[in-house]
Write a structure and sequence with these properties.
single chain; alpha+beta; 5-stranded mixed sheet; two-stranded antiparallel ribbon
Length: 189
């Protein structure tokens, strides 16, 4: 979680204290959940919980960007019961806001989708790119960090692929459903 996000969130919260105070309360509770996960959360959490953190982050940013930020979620009817390294999806969503929404005067669209396949689960985070930034490449630190945590937790079987075209930036995380070979599995009696 980047420092500029913290300062922007606190400034947004201060602006909301007098009008509408319930939004300020929700913003602070969402921020507390994000920091709790960042500072003391387990190394791996259920996919559903990780998506809830990303949703909280987007709710905070929605207070800041308003109609400039559109978000579309495409989720399966039943969320796959799968663990994911904590804060793997949220930084990807944060990058989508930072590079796709923030610099665009008219804002843009962020899409988050989860696809449940036979052997794996795919999580896609896609954002529109402002025309002036379509050729600019960032430092890739958030991607490198998420990729490293994913690689370690799946013993190299998961992947993170980033692609871009003239109008969109897309990151796809692929998580295997079966545990890595040599991982102890629970037995039933």
């Amino acid at each position: 979680i980047r420092p500029h996000f913290l300062f922007n969130t606190l400034n947004t919260g201060a602006a909301l204290v007098h009008q509408p105070p319930d939004a300020a309360e929700r913003l602070l509770l969402d921020l507390a959940d994000l920091f709790r996960a960042a500072l003391s959360g387990p190394a791996e959490i259920p996919l559903e919980d990780e998506l809830a953190l990303a949703r909280r982050y987007l709710e905070i940013e929605a207070l800041r960007f308003g109609q400039r930020m559109q978000v579309e979620w495409t989720l399966p009817p039943a969320m796959p019961s799968l663990g994911i390294p904590a804060l793997s999806v949220q930084p990807l969503v944060e990058n989508a806001v930072r590079h796709g929404i923030e610099p665009a005067p008219r804002g843009g669209l962020i899409e988050i989708a989860v696809e449940d396949h036979v052997a794996d689960v795919r999580i896609m985070v896609r954002n529109t790119l402002p025309p002036a930034l379509s050729a600019v490449k960032g430092h890739q630190l958030g991607l490198a960090s998420a990729r490293a945590r994913l690689h370690a937790s799946t013993r190299g079987r998961g992947s993170l692929l980033a692609t871009r075209d003239e109008t969109h930036y897309t990151v796809t995380v692929t998580l295997p459903k079966a545990p890595p070979a040599g991982t102890p599995q629970a037995t039933t009696r």
